[in-house]
Design brief:
With about 325 residues, this protein is an alpha+beta fold. The protein contains 10 helices and 6 strands, in the order βααβαβααβββααααα. The strands form 2 sheets. It has a 4-stranded mixed sheet with strand order 1-6-5-4, with helices on one face. It has a two-stranded antiparallel ribbon with strand order 2-3.
Amino acid sequence: MQSTTAGVRTARLGPGLTTAVRHAVRPLGCTTFMTAAALLAVALARRGAQRDFLFAFPWAGRDDGPTAMAIGMFVNTLVLRVDLAAAGSWRALLARVRENCLAAYRQADVPFDEVAAALHPGRDLSRPALTPVYLSVEEGRDQPASPAGTTARYLDLDPLHLKYELELVATDLGDDIEVAMTYAVGLFEPATAAMLLDDLVTAARDLAADPDAHPLEETAMSTTAAAEDRSQAGLIESVRRAWADVLDLDSPGQVPVDVNFLEAGGSSLLLIMLWEQLEPLTTRMLRVSDLFEHGTVRRQAALLADDEPAEDLLAGTVLDEEPVATAGASE
Protein backbone atom coordinates (compact mmCIF):
# COMPACT_ATOMS: atom_id res chain seq x y z
CA MET A 1 0.00 0.00 0.00
CA GLN A 2 1.47 3.34 -1.09
CA SER A 3 1.82 5.81 1.80
CA THR A 4 0.15 9.22 1.40
CA THR A 5 2.14 10.96 4.14
CA ALA A 6 3.32 14.30 2.78
CA GLY A 7 6.18 16.75 3.10
CA VAL A 8 6.48 20.16 1.45
CA ARG A 9 9.19 22.53 0.24
CA THR A 10 8.70 26.04 -1.17
CA ALA A 11 10.70 28.55 -3.20
CA ARG A 12 10.14 31.84 -5.02
CA LEU A 13 11.39 33.02 -8.38
CA GLY A 14 11.85 36.59 -7.15
CA PRO A 15 10.46 39.74 -8.80
CA GLY A 16 13.31 40.14 -11.29
CA LEU A 17 13.15 36.57 -12.62
CA THR A 18 9.34 36.57 -12.60
CA THR A 19 9.31 39.68 -14.80
CA ALA A 20 11.93 38.21 -17.15
CA VAL A 21 10.06 34.92 -17.55
CA ARG A 22 6.78 36.70 -18.27
CA HIS A 23 8.51 38.85 -20.86
CA ALA A 24 9.86 35.71 -22.55
CA VAL A 25 6.55 33.81 -22.69
CA ARG A 26 4.15 36.68 -23.39
CA PRO A 27 4.71 36.70 -27.19
CA LEU A 28 3.83 32.99 -27.25
CA GLY A 29 0.50 33.51 -25.48
CA CYS A 30 1.46 31.24 -22.59
CA THR A 31 -0.20 31.51 -19.20
CA THR A 32 1.47 30.96 -15.83
CA PHE A 33 0.11 27.40 -15.83
CA MET A 34 1.57 26.61 -19.26
CA THR A 35 4.92 28.05 -18.24
CA ALA A 36 4.93 26.09 -14.97
CA ALA A 37 4.19 22.87 -16.87
CA ALA A 38 7.15 23.43 -19.20
CA LEU A 39 9.49 24.29 -16.33
CA LEU A 40 8.43 21.25 -14.30
CA ALA A 41 8.94 18.90 -17.24
CA VAL A 42 12.41 20.32 -17.91
CA ALA A 43 13.38 20.10 -14.23
CA LEU A 44 12.36 16.43 -14.14
CA ALA A 45 14.00 15.63 -17.50
CA ARG A 46 17.31 17.15 -16.46
CA ARG A 47 17.47 14.65 -13.61
CA GLY A 48 16.74 11.52 -15.64
CA ALA A 49 16.21 9.90 -19.02
CA GLN A 50 12.45 10.44 -19.30
CA ARG A 51 11.37 12.99 -21.90
CA ASP A 52 7.62 12.47 -22.13
CA PHE A 53 5.44 13.43 -19.15
CA LEU A 54 1.80 13.44 -18.10
CA PHE A 55 0.64 15.96 -15.50
CA ALA A 56 -2.77 15.84 -13.86
CA PHE A 57 -4.36 19.24 -13.21
CA PRO A 58 -7.73 20.56 -11.98
CA TRP A 59 -10.38 22.18 -14.16
CA ALA A 60 -13.05 24.34 -12.54
CA GLY A 61 -15.87 23.00 -14.73
CA ARG A 62 -17.65 26.37 -14.89
CA ASP A 63 -17.48 27.05 -18.60
CA ASP A 64 -21.03 28.23 -19.28
CA GLY A 65 -23.59 30.63 -17.87
CA PRO A 66 -25.66 28.20 -15.74
CA THR A 67 -22.62 26.83 -13.89
CA ALA A 68 -20.56 30.01 -13.59
CA MET A 69 -22.29 31.20 -10.40
CA ALA A 70 -23.91 27.94 -9.29
CA ILE A 71 -23.18 26.47 -5.87
CA GLY A 72 -21.69 23.03 -6.24
CA MET A 73 -18.63 20.94 -7.00
CA PHE A 74 -17.89 20.87 -10.73
CA VAL A 75 -14.12 20.32 -10.69
CA ASN A 76 -12.78 17.67 -13.06
CA THR A 77 -9.24 16.34 -13.39
CA LEU A 78 -7.57 16.77 -16.78
CA VAL A 79 -4.25 15.41 -18.02
CA LEU A 80 -1.61 17.40 -19.88
CA ARG A 81 1.10 15.79 -21.99
CA VAL A 82 4.50 17.52 -22.15
CA ASP A 83 6.84 15.86 -24.65
CA LEU A 84 10.39 17.22 -24.80
CA ALA A 85 11.63 14.76 -27.41
CA ALA A 86 11.32 17.13 -30.38
CA ALA A 87 11.52 20.44 -28.51
CA GLY A 88 14.52 22.14 -30.06
CA SER A 89 14.05 25.36 -28.12
CA TRP A 90 12.13 26.85 -25.23
CA ARG A 91 9.88 28.58 -27.75
CA ALA A 92 9.05 25.31 -29.47
CA LEU A 93 8.40 23.58 -26.14
CA LEU A 94 6.11 26.34 -24.88
CA ALA A 95 4.20 26.41 -28.18
CA ARG A 96 3.62 22.66 -27.89
CA VAL A 97 2.57 22.92 -24.24
CA ARG A 98 0.10 25.66 -25.14
CA GLU A 99 -1.36 23.57 -27.97
CA ASN A 100 -1.75 20.53 -25.69
CA CYS A 101 -3.35 22.66 -22.96
CA LEU A 102 -5.95 24.01 -25.38
CA ALA A 103 -6.67 20.48 -26.58
CA ALA A 104 -7.19 19.33 -22.98
CA TYR A 105 -9.48 22.30 -22.26
CA ARG A 106 -11.66 21.38 -25.23
CA GLN A 107 -12.19 17.90 -23.75
CA ALA A 108 -12.73 19.13 -20.20
CA ASP A 109 -16.19 17.56 -19.89
CA VAL A 110 -14.88 14.00 -20.23
CA PRO A 111 -15.07 12.42 -16.73
CA PHE A 112 -11.58 11.62 -15.50
CA ASP A 113 -12.63 8.49 -13.61
CA GLU A 114 -14.05 6.98 -16.80
CA VAL A 115 -10.81 7.70 -18.67
CA ALA A 116 -8.75 6.15 -15.86
CA ALA A 117 -10.99 3.07 -15.71
CA ALA A 118 -10.77 2.56 -19.48
CA LEU A 119 -6.99 2.93 -19.68
CA HIS A 120 -6.02 1.20 -16.41
CA PRO A 121 -8.89 -1.12 -15.46
CA GLY A 122 -6.81 -3.25 -13.09
CA ARG A 123 -4.61 -0.57 -11.58
CA ASP A 124 -3.43 -0.49 -7.97
CA LEU A 125 -5.98 1.78 -6.29
CA SER A 126 -3.39 2.97 -3.77
CA ARG A 127 -1.49 4.66 -6.63
CA PRO A 128 -2.59 7.72 -8.64
CA ALA A 129 -4.40 7.12 -11.90
CA LEU A 130 -2.51 7.72 -15.18
CA THR A 131 0.25 9.86 -13.67
CA PRO A 132 1.91 10.34 -10.27
CA VAL A 133 2.45 14.09 -10.84
CA TYR A 134 -0.06 16.86 -10.19
CA LEU A 135 0.24 20.53 -11.19
CA SER A 136 -1.90 23.57 -10.45
CA VAL A 137 -1.69 27.37 -10.37
CA GLU A 138 -3.38 29.61 -7.82
CA GLU A 139 -3.87 33.35 -7.60
CA GLY A 140 -2.31 35.14 -4.64
CA ARG A 141 -4.75 35.98 -1.88
CA ASP A 142 -5.19 39.31 -0.12
CA GLN A 143 -3.99 39.56 3.43
CA PRO A 144 -6.71 39.64 6.10
CA ALA A 145 -7.66 42.96 7.71
CA SER A 146 -5.60 43.76 10.81
CA PRO A 147 -7.31 45.38 13.82
CA ALA A 148 -5.58 48.49 15.13
CA GLY A 149 -2.27 47.69 16.78
CA THR A 150 -2.11 44.12 15.47
CA THR A 151 -0.80 42.26 12.46
CA ALA A 152 -2.95 39.50 10.96
CA ARG A 153 -1.88 37.03 8.29
CA TYR A 154 -2.89 33.65 6.98
CA LEU A 155 -1.04 30.69 8.44
CA ASP A 156 -0.28 28.08 5.80
CA LEU A 157 -0.39 24.61 7.30
CA ASP A 158 1.79 21.88 5.89
CA PRO A 159 -0.24 19.10 4.26
CA LEU A 160 -0.50 15.85 6.20
CA HIS A 161 -1.35 13.72 3.17
CA LEU A 162 -1.37 14.02 -0.60
CA LYS A 163 -3.28 12.32 -3.40
CA TYR A 164 -0.44 12.15 -5.91
CA GLU A 165 3.20 11.27 -5.37
CA LEU A 166 4.52 14.68 -6.41
CA GLU A 167 2.42 17.85 -6.48
CA LEU A 168 3.55 21.29 -7.63
CA VAL A 169 1.44 24.37 -6.89
CA ALA A 170 2.55 27.70 -8.36
CA THR A 171 1.01 30.76 -6.71
CA ASP A 172 0.91 33.98 -8.73
CA LEU A 173 1.66 36.78 -6.26
CA GLY A 174 1.61 39.55 -8.84
CA ASP A 175 5.25 40.63 -8.78
CA ASP A 176 6.52 37.18 -7.84
CA ILE A 177 5.71 33.49 -8.23
CA GLU A 178 5.92 31.04 -5.35
CA VAL A 179 6.26 27.33 -6.06
CA ALA A 180 5.41 24.70 -3.45
CA MET A 181 6.37 21.08 -3.98
CA THR A 182 4.48 18.52 -1.92
CA TYR A 183 5.95 15.03 -2.01
CA ALA A 184 5.34 11.53 -0.67
CA VAL A 185 7.84 11.09 2.15
CA GLY A 186 7.97 7.36 1.48
CA LEU A 187 9.37 8.05 -2.00
CA PHE A 188 11.32 11.30 -1.75
CA GLU A 189 13.81 12.75 0.69
CA PRO A 190 13.36 16.43 1.64
CA ALA A 191 16.70 17.15 -0.04
CA THR A 192 15.39 15.65 -3.29
CA ALA A 193 12.34 17.92 -3.29
CA ALA A 194 14.55 20.92 -2.54
CA MET A 195 16.85 19.90 -5.40
CA LEU A 196 13.93 19.65 -7.84
CA LEU A 197 12.72 23.10 -6.82
CA ASP A 198 16.22 24.48 -7.40
CA ASP A 199 16.26 22.79 -10.82
CA LEU A 200 12.92 24.42 -11.64
CA VAL A 201 14.22 27.88 -10.71
CA THR A 202 17.37 27.20 -12.76
CA ALA A 203 15.18 26.24 -15.72
CA ALA A 204 13.25 29.51 -15.32
CA ARG A 205 16.53 31.44 -15.45
CA ASP A 206 17.60 29.56 -18.57
CA LEU A 207 14.26 30.30 -20.25
CA ALA A 208 14.53 33.99 -19.40
CA ALA A 209 18.17 34.17 -20.54
CA ASP A 210 17.64 32.63 -23.99
CA PRO A 211 14.20 31.40 -25.18
CA ASP A 212 15.85 30.05 -28.35
CA ALA A 213 18.19 27.72 -26.44
CA HIS A 214 17.51 23.99 -26.10
CA PRO A 215 15.54 23.47 -22.85
CA LEU A 216 17.68 20.52 -21.75
CA GLU A 217 20.91 22.48 -22.06
CA GLU A 218 21.74 24.73 -19.13
CA THR A 219 23.07 28.13 -20.15
CA ALA A 220 26.14 29.91 -18.86
CA MET A 221 23.93 31.18 -16.02
CA SER A 222 24.00 27.64 -14.68
CA THR A 223 27.73 27.22 -14.15
CA THR A 224 28.77 26.14 -10.68
CA ALA A 225 29.91 29.59 -9.57
CA ALA A 226 26.81 31.31 -10.94
CA ALA A 227 24.55 28.68 -9.41
CA GLU A 228 26.11 29.15 -5.99
CA ASP A 229 25.83 32.93 -6.23
CA ARG A 230 22.25 32.62 -7.44
CA SER A 231 21.31 30.29 -4.61
CA GLN A 232 22.69 32.64 -1.96
CA ALA A 233 21.09 35.71 -3.54
CA GLY A 234 17.78 33.87 -3.79
CA LEU A 235 17.91 32.88 -0.13
CA ILE A 236 18.68 36.46 0.93
CA GLU A 237 15.70 37.67 -1.09
CA SER A 238 13.45 34.98 0.44
CA VAL A 239 14.57 35.89 3.96
CA ARG A 240 14.00 39.61 3.28
CA ARG A 241 10.49 38.84 2.05
CA ALA A 242 9.77 36.82 5.18
CA TRP A 243 11.05 39.67 7.38
CA ALA A 244 8.92 42.19 5.48
CA ASP A 245 5.83 40.03 5.95
CA VAL A 246 6.41 39.43 9.65
CA LEU A 247 7.40 43.05 10.39
CA ASP A 248 4.47 44.35 8.29
CA LEU A 249 6.67 46.36 5.94
CA ASP A 250 5.50 47.49 2.52
CA SER A 251 8.43 46.03 0.58
CA PRO A 252 11.37 43.64 1.08
CA GLY A 253 13.55 46.52 -0.09
CA GLN A 254 12.94 48.14 3.30
CA VAL A 255 14.64 45.22 5.07
CA PRO A 256 18.38 45.72 5.75
CA VAL A 257 20.53 42.63 5.36
CA ASP A 258 22.98 43.31 8.20
CA VAL A 259 20.72 44.62 10.99
CA ASN A 260 19.58 42.36 13.80
CA PHE A 261 15.94 41.22 13.68
CA LEU A 262 15.22 42.55 17.17
CA GLU A 263 16.77 45.92 16.35
CA ALA A 264 14.66 46.07 13.18
CA GLY A 265 11.46 45.96 15.23
CA GLY A 266 11.10 42.23 15.83
CA SER A 267 10.21 40.43 19.04
CA SER A 268 10.28 36.91 20.44
CA LEU A 269 6.75 36.24 19.18
CA LEU A 270 7.53 37.64 15.73
CA LEU A 271 10.65 35.48 15.64
CA ILE A 272 8.45 32.39 15.96
CA MET A 273 6.33 33.67 13.08
CA LEU A 274 9.54 34.20 11.09
CA TRP A 275 10.62 30.63 11.83
CA GLU A 276 7.32 29.36 10.39
CA GLN A 277 8.15 31.05 7.08
CA LEU A 278 11.83 30.12 6.90
CA GLU A 279 11.67 26.50 8.05
CA PRO A 280 10.32 25.18 4.68
CA LEU A 281 13.23 26.83 2.84
CA THR A 282 15.93 24.53 4.22
CA THR A 283 16.62 20.82 4.47
CA ARG A 284 18.35 21.16 7.85
CA MET A 285 16.50 21.00 11.16
CA LEU A 286 15.81 24.65 11.96
CA ARG A 287 14.99 25.86 15.47
CA VAL A 288 13.68 29.23 16.60
CA SER A 289 16.80 29.61 18.72
CA ASP A 290 18.91 29.26 15.56
CA LEU A 291 17.28 32.38 14.16
CA PHE A 292 17.94 34.20 17.44
CA GLU A 293 21.62 33.28 17.26
CA HIS A 294 21.84 34.22 13.57
CA GLY A 295 20.11 37.56 13.88
CA THR A 296 20.54 39.23 10.48
CA VAL A 297 19.13 38.51 7.03
CA ARG A 298 22.56 37.65 5.67
CA ARG A 299 23.40 35.23 8.49
CA GLN A 300 19.96 33.60 8.37
CA ALA A 301 20.31 33.07 4.61
CA ALA A 302 23.71 31.44 5.21
CA LEU A 303 22.12 29.30 7.93
CA LEU A 304 19.41 28.10 5.54
CA ALA A 305 22.11 27.23 3.02
CA ASP A 306 23.90 25.34 5.80
CA ASP A 307 27.18 27.18 5.26
CA GLU A 308 27.14 29.44 8.32
CA PRO A 309 30.52 29.27 10.16
CA ALA A 310 30.35 27.67 13.57
CA GLU A 311 32.35 30.40 15.31
CA ASP A 312 30.99 33.78 16.42
CA LEU A 313 27.40 32.53 16.45
CA LEU A 314 26.22 35.37 18.68
CA ALA A 315 27.42 38.12 16.35
CA GLY A 316 24.57 40.44 15.42
CA THR A 317 22.30 39.49 18.35
CA VAL A 318 21.02 41.56 21.24
CA LEU A 319 21.95 39.76 24.43
CA ASP A 320 19.72 41.72 26.80
CA GLU A 321 16.50 40.77 24.99
CA GLU A 322 14.16 38.30 26.63
CA PRO A 323 14.86 34.65 25.76
CA VAL A 324 12.90 33.38 22.78
CA ALA A 325 9.88 31.34 23.80
CA THR A 326 9.89 28.07 21.88
CA ALA A 327 7.16 26.21 23.77
CA GLY A 328 4.62 24.77 21.40
CA ALA A 329 6.77 25.24 18.28
CA SER A 330 6.96 22.05 16.26
CA GLU A 331 10.08 20.94 14.43
